Amino acid sequence: MDVATRWREFVAKAIYPVGLASPLLTFVQAGKIFLEKDAAGVSLLAWAGYLIIAFFWLNYGMHNRLRPMILVESFAIIGYILIVVGAIMY
Predict the structure, then answer these.
(1) Nearest Cα to 85, choosing from 52, 53, 57, 47?
(2) φ, ψ (nearest 5 deg) of residue 51
(3) What number of CA atoms fall less than 13 Å from residue 36's CA on the CB side?
(4) Alpha carbons 71 and 69: distance in angstroms, whole number
């Protein structure tokens, strides 16, 4: 088995945990906002933009039946919604 094939197999297996790590980190930001009841320094415009973009990526993933993308973007959208709501509330 050549190096390129091994690399592709590794990436195919690692994509789920690696892909989930990114959106799950948004929950750290959301948790900070809600636990401290403070959204100072959080850009509502930026996070709302991320939310809108994530919906486009989710749509693309669903249209092309890309399970990793669907999973990642679904978690990202939940995290972004929490941050946007927290930024509005506090």
Answers:
(1) 47
(2) -65, -45
(3) 13
(4) 5
With a cut of 90, say whether residue 1 has pLDDT above it: no
How large is the C-alpha radius of gyration of the chain?
16
pTM equals: 0.83
- Eight-state DSSP code of residue 28: H
pLDDT digits (tens, 9 = 90+) for 25-75: 999 999 999 999 999 999 999 999 999 999 999 999 999 999 989 999 999
CA distances from 44 to 68, 87, 88, 90 (A): 27, 6, 7, 11
CATH of domain 3-89: 1.20.1280.290
Are residues 81 and 89 in contact, defined by beta-carbon separation less than 8 angstroms?
Answer: no
67-89 vs 44-63: helix crossing angle, rounded to 10 = 160
